[in-house]
Amino acid sequence: MKKVCSNGTFHRLSMSKKSKENNHTLFGSPRGSFRRPKTEKNSVTRGERGPIMIAEGSKGMNRSIKTGGATNRMSMRNERNKEMLLDIKSRAESWSKYACERMAERTEAAQESEEVRMNKEENQDELRARRTTRMRKVSRDREKNKEELEAEKVKRRQEWK
């Protein structure tokens, strides 16, 4: 006995085994599958699967849509998928090339900056050494000047006396 559901379709669970096997228009649902009305299967409106792509000027395509067959539709979909895959591959390749270039640039920049830093440190060391020698020189000069000044003072005093 076939149990008719509220929407006028037959319930799968109450169907006989043979009718289940023959009925290939089943689609899944949580409470078992429901039988689609046959008209929907061959209708042109595709609904969930997206709009039908009608290629202008291709008779075969239009014919397949009119008859409800899916041969040309499938081949077009396959073509589109192939194109998409190729596009993705090319994008990935170009991105990887770009990434490699960027990495190379970064490593070069890092090496340069390292060299610059090393040079700076060396220069700092040199400057420090120069400064210390200069400071020593200045202090020596000061000491000499002090001694000279003292000597001059002594001379002047002796001259005055």
TrEMBL record:
Residues 37-49, 103-129, 138-161 have a biased composition (Basic and acidic residues). Residues 1-78, 103-161 are annotated as: Disordered. This is Uncharacterized protein. It comes from Elysia crispata.
